[in-house]
């Protein structure tokens, strides 16, 4: 899957046609794939073949407790083996990597579990559902702590305060809610968006909340007062709904992606759009910041992962995929970024060279979410194929 590959050239059977120049072709000979020698084992040579026939399953653990599509996954920040998943069967599950006979069902939601997040200290788990509620689970006790309600629509996402047990959720009804999970208490409701609140988070300093909506606006809020500090909308900002956002480590900038294919950088102090990163040709689905380089990564339905140089606001690398990119995650402070794709593959990319250094096979349908374990030894992916899979990634820590 290197960017310089000629992977688009496939015949109707999915077999790859490789040639130097068109004029160099004397004749084309069809070769049965079974007669071909094995490639270098990174999985790329099997891109066009039937995944059920040829491709190995690279996962070291498969979780099959769900009976519907999986939408969300989170690894515990404190227990390297503990994983939480949620899906269209209205259930969450807690399970452990490599421990096939242990799983705890998180019951009580009446609709799909759309978002899941551990508190920073790993003590609490929040599950957000399209039923409009957030359930908070006590990890040491393994029991339901409280159910937080109020929103009039489904929960799109949940996030924890960076230093406490306040939980934030965005809803399809255009509102954002903040609760104290320790006290099972409502703290604030943020109203102003005209459409579903598709993304949001606390700034890393915990002093501000940023939310993005399908109404094509970004809003900046004061968590204590509920005051709407800034509304960023209109030219030169996104023309269509926001899909994803990330906030810089110094809490000064938000980078947002949209259905319109644009990426914009907003100064959270002034509320001004300071840069526009325009290179995707279809919806930007995911975004992430490198902790160790001045890079942002964005993935889109245009089948591209783009690594941006934030110091120059330019494209550093564009990495081509066989299908749309649904989710991505940087592997700690390493140079590697992982993409989860609509073709069911999980790919590891070197952000310095642009090379795809590993393709993990195993899923038979689109990847929806990715989460690395706390020790960065494992990566968990969830798919609409109803499974979660664990892949070994320890070699990419550096």
From TrEMBL:
<dbReference type="InterPro" id="IPR011047">
    <property type="entry name" value="Quinoprotein_ADH-like_sf"/>
</dbReference>
<dbReference type="GO" id="GO:0005737">
    <property type="term" value="C:cytoplasm"/>
</dbReference>
<feature type="repeat" description="WD">
    <location>
        <begin position="63"/>
        <end position="97"/>
    </location>
</feature>
<keyword id="KW-0963">Cytoplasm</keyword>
<feature type="repeat" description="WD">
    <location>
        <begin position="318"/>
        <end position="359"/>
    </location>
</feature>
<feature type="repeat" description="WD">
    <location>
        <begin position="190"/>
        <end position="231"/>
    </location>
</feature>
<dbReference type="InterPro" id="IPR015943">
    <property type="entry name" value="WD40/YVTN_repeat-like_dom_sf"/>
</dbReference>
<feature type="repeat" description="WD">
    <location>
        <begin position="106"/>
        <end position="147"/>
    </location>
</feature>
<dbReference type="InterPro" id="IPR001680">
    <property type="entry name" value="WD40_rpt"/>
</dbReference>
<dbReference type="InterPro" id="IPR051179">
    <property type="entry name" value="WD_repeat_multifunction"/>
</dbReference>
<feature type="region of interest" description="Disordered">
    <location>
        <begin position="1"/>
        <end position="63"/>
    </location>
</feature>
<protein>
    <recommendedName>
        <fullName>Angio-associated migratory cell protein</fullName>
    </recommendedName>
</protein>
<dbReference type="InterPro" id="IPR020472">
    <property type="entry name" value="WD40_PAC1"/>
</dbReference>
<keyword id="KW-0677">Repeat</keyword>
<feature type="compositionally biased region" description="Acidic residues">
    <location>
        <begin position="8"/>
        <end position="57"/>
    </location>
</feature>
<feature type="repeat" description="WD">
    <location>
        <begin position="277"/>
        <end position="318"/>
    </location>
</feature>
<dbReference type="InterPro" id="IPR019775">
    <property type="entry name" value="WD40_repeat_CS"/>
</dbReference>
<feature type="repeat" description="WD">
    <location>
        <begin position="360"/>
        <end position="398"/>
    </location>
</feature>
<feature type="repeat" description="WD">
    <location>
        <begin position="148"/>
        <end position="189"/>
    </location>
</feature>
<keyword id="KW-0853">WD repeat</keyword>
<dbReference type="Pfam" id="PF00400">
    <property type="entry name" value="WD40"/>
</dbReference>
